[in-house]
Amino acid sequence: MKKLLSAGLLLSTLALAGCSSTLSNNNSSQGNSSATSSQTYTNTSSFKNNVFENNDAKIEIVKTQVSQPGGEVNELGGKPAFVIWYKITNKSGAELTPGSWLNYFDAYQSDSGTESKLTNPPMPQYTNYTRNMVNSIKKGETAENAVAYELTNTTQPVRLVAQSALSQEKFGEQTFNLK
């Protein structure tokens, strides 16, 4: 229980750590789920075609899928989860870890006429994904990791929004159909 609490505190701290606000875009996608739409907001930042980029980081979504409870990256979850595998590159030498994903992204899903912000299921501390969350990424280096969001249902798409954790300024969003 103490380890699970420590992991939750660490993830909360990472989510509040900080963000940048200048972005450009790139292009890549694959996986079991498909991006169906993309929306860019009227500021200088963007997130589209599965790539988020700012002065400090480039985050590329490599693959997505639905994982059942007990499945990969959802070992302790009690509900199906939307899992995103990604690569994160440190462009500037700023403090950056694979867990920095949480500084930039929120996931939402509609169910019964309302939209809910999705939460991350508990993850055991011994997996590569949780161990890698806090490892520093050096300038010019890339790390791979995964993140999961507990689904409210397995039929409605997931809306992934890139935004500043502090100001809530939106950089863009993509919608992923569940297959």
Automatic annotation (TrEMBL):
Mind listing the UniProt keywords for this protein, alphabetically? Signal
Q: Which PROSITE patterns match?
A: PROKAR_LIPOPROTEIN
Locate the region Disordered: 24-47
- Which residue ranges have biased composition labelled Low complexity? 24-40
Would you indicate the residue range of the signal peptide? 1-17
Q: Which residues form a coiled coil?
A: none
State whether keyword Oxidoreductase applies.
no
Which residue intervals define the domain DUF5067 in the entry? 33-160
User: Which Pfam family is one of this chain's hits?
Assistant: DUF5067
Q: Which Gene3D superfamilies match?
A: 2.60.40.1240
The name of this protein is DUF5067 domain-containing protein
Annotated organism of origin: Holzapfeliella saturejae
